[in-house]
Backbone:
């Protein structure tokens, strides 16, 4: 059975289309693996004490007066104890916005003087 030029052209086109599909799937997989779009934000500590937090699964400590700039492709989810001095954990969790500047500050809306929260300062 002889292959015609037209059949060979169709086979080549099919092969090229498959390569294109694989390339597109590779790009999608790379984006999923990396967590998608990279987000950037700044976190500052405006309290009088060290604050330990977890950002996208990575534990960090921020000392009073310090600031850190983050880049992540994993969503920007931050978790922290809103009062490290009280027994147990008072967990808070936020999804940080790309380009935002956030500050840990004393939470003056509660009666307990050592409560803290994370506040959005500006974009």
Residues:
């Amino acid at each position: 059975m002889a292959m015609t030029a037209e059949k060979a052209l169709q086979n080549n086109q099919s092969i090229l289309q498959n390569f294109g599909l694989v390339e597109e799937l590779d790009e999608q997989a790379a984006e999923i693996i990396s967590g998608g779009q990279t987000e950037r934000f700044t976190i500052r500590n405006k309290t009088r004490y060290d604050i330990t937090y977890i950002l996208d699964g990575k534990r960090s400590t921020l000392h009073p007066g310090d600031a850190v700039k983050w880049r992540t492709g994993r969503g920007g989810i931050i978790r922290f104890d809103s009062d490290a001095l009280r027994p147990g954990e008072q967990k808070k969790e936020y999804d940080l916005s790309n380009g935002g500047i956030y500050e840990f500050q004393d939470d003056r809306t509660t009666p307990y003087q050592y409560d803290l929260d994370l506040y959005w300062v500006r974009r």
Q: What stands out?
A: The chain has one helix and eight strands.
